[in-house]
Design brief:
mainly alpha, 2 domains, Rhopdopsin 7-helix transmembrane proteins, 377 residues
C-alpha cells in the first residue's frame, strides 16, 4: 500500500516535471531573458525527483539513469546547450505516465505514438548532438545515451510484438539475410576509390569472403526450412555456421591489418588479435561438441556461440575505434553499441538478424571512413 502511494506521488512529480520541461522548451523558442532562470528551476525539480527515485527504485536501469541525472544537475549548468538538451529529455515522461492510466484503446495508441515520437526526438535525436562534447561529463552522457537506446529498442520490441507478428518467420529472415552482406562489397570498393591504396585490398578480400560465407549459411538454412525432417543440428548446417564464423574472424583480423598497416609494431597487434581469434575458433568447436555429446539445447548453443564469437571481434572494434578521429569514432562506436543491444533485447523477434546485418552495412561505411582518415594513416 505504501509503495503504491510512493509510486503515485512519483508519477505525479514526473508528470509535473515533464509538463514544465515542455513549457520551458516552448518558451525557449522565443529566446527570452528569463530563459536561464526557468532552466535552473527545472533543474532543481529534476534533481529532487532523481534523488527520490534513487532511494525508492529497484530497477538497475532506472538507478543508473537517475545517477546520471544527478550528475548532470550538479555539474553541467555551465554548458547551456548540453544542460538544456538533457533537461528537455524529461518531456517524454508526460506520455509515459499517461499510458499507465489510459484505458481507452484508441487514446492509449494515440498517446503511445506521441510517447514514441517524443522519445525519439528528445532522447535519441537531440541527445546525439551533445555526444561530441568531450570536455565534461563524457561518461555520464554516454551512459545515459546507451540507456536511452536500450529503452527505445524495448519500445520497438513492444510495437513489433503487437503489430508485426505476421512477418515474424524464419523464411523472411534467411531469404533477406542471404544478400545483405553483399551490399558491403560495392560500398567498400566505392569508398576506397577516393584514395586507392594497397592496404585496402586486405579489407576488400575480408568483406568479400564474409559476404560469400554469409550467403552460403543463410541460403542453406533457407533451403533446410523447406524440408520438414531436417533439424538445425544437421552436420552441413553446423559446418556452414562454423565456416561463417571463421570468415567473421578473418574479416575482423584483416580489418586490423588494414587499419594499422603503417604502424611500426603491426606484427604484435596481429599476433595478439590472431591469438584471440584462434582461441575463439577453438571454443566454438568445443561448443559444437558439447551440443552433440550432451544433446544440449539449441538456444543455449546459440547464446554461447554468439558470446564466443563476439569477444575477439569487439576487441578489434575497440582498436579501430582508437585509430579513428572523433567525428568518425563516435558514430562507429554507437553502431557497435546498438548492435550489442540488438542481440541482447531482440526487438524484432526472428527478423532481428535482418536489422543487425543492415546495421553492419552502416558500420562498414564508418570503418571505411576510419581507414581513409585514420590517425596512423
Amino acid at each position: 500500500m505504501i509503495m503504491n502511494i510512493i509510486k503515485n506521488i512519483q508519477n505525479i512529480n514526473g508528470f509535473i516535471i515533464g509538463n514544465y520541461s515542455l513549457f520551458v522548451y516552448l518558451y525557449s523558442l522565443k529566446q527570452q531573458t528569463t530563459y536561464i532562470s526557468l532552466l535552473n528551476t527545472l533543474n532543481t525539480l529534476v534533481l529532487k525527483h532523481s534523488v527520490v527515485e534513487l532511494v525508492t527504485s529497484k530497477k538497475y536501469d532506472i538507478i543508473v539513469h537517475r545517477l546520471c541525472s544527478v550528475a548532470f544537475s550538479l555539474y553541467l549548468q555551465t554548458k547551456e546547450e548540453i544542460f538544456s538538451t538533457i533537461l528537455y529529455s524529461e518531456i517524454p515522461t508526460i506520455f509515459y505516465i499517461l499510458k499507465k492510466y489510459i484505458d481507452h484503446p484508441h487514446l492509449y495508441n494515440a498517446n503511445y505514438v506521441l510517447f514514441y515520437l517524443s522519445f525519439f526526438k528528445f532522447k535519441i535525436y537531440d541527445f546525439y548532438t551533445i555526444l561530441n562534447d568531450f570536455d565534461i561529463g563524457v561518461l555520464c552522457i554516454y551512459t545515459q545515451y546507451i540507456i536511452n537506446l536500450y529503452w527505445f529498442l524495448l519500445m520497438n520490441k513492444h510495437l513489433y510484438e503487437n503489430f508485426m507478428q505476421p512477418l515474424n518467420n524464419l523464411f523472411i529472415k534467411h531469404s533477406v539475410c542471404r544478400y545483405i552482406n553483399f551490399v558491403n562489397v560495392p560500398l567498400t570498393i566505392y569508398m576506397y576509390s577516393y584514395d586507392p591504396c594497397k592496404r585496402y585490398i586486405y579489407d576488400i578480400v575480408g568483406i568479400t569472403v564474409l559476404s560469400a560465407s554469409s550467403y552460403q549459411y543463410h541460403n542453406d538454412f533457407y533451403n533446410k526450412l523447406n524440408k520438414v525432417n531436417d533439424s538445425f543440428t544437421e552436420n552441413d548446417v553446423i559446418n556452414n555456421l562454423l565456416f561463417d564464423s571463421v570468415c567473421v574472424h578473418l574479416r575482423s583480423w584483416l580489418s586490423i591489418l588494414t587499419s594499422y598497416y603503417h604502424v611500426k609494431n603491426l606484427w604484435l597487434l596481429l599476433v595478439v588479435s590472431g591469438g584471440f581469434h584462434m582461441y575463439s575458433i577453438f571454443l566454438s568447436n568445443m561448443n559444437v561438441l558439447q551440443l552433440f555429446i550432451n544433446n544440449g539445447e539449441v538456444n543455449v548453443f546459440i547464446k554461447c556461440h554468439t558470446i564466443i564469437l563476439s569477444v575477439p571481434v569487439l576487441c578489434d572494434y575497440l582498436l579501430i575505434f582508437m585509430n579513428s578521429p572523433n567525428e568518425i569514432a563516435i558514430p562507429y562506436l554507437l553502431i557497435i553499441i546498438i548492435g550489442e543491444l540488438l542481440i541482447f533485447v531482440k526487438p524484432f523477434g526472428k527478423l532481428n538478424e535482418i536489422a543487425f546485418q543492415t546495421l553492419l552495412v552502416g558500420q562498414t561505411y564508418y570503418y571505411c571512413l576510419s581507414n581513409l582518415n585514420s590517425i596512423y594513416h
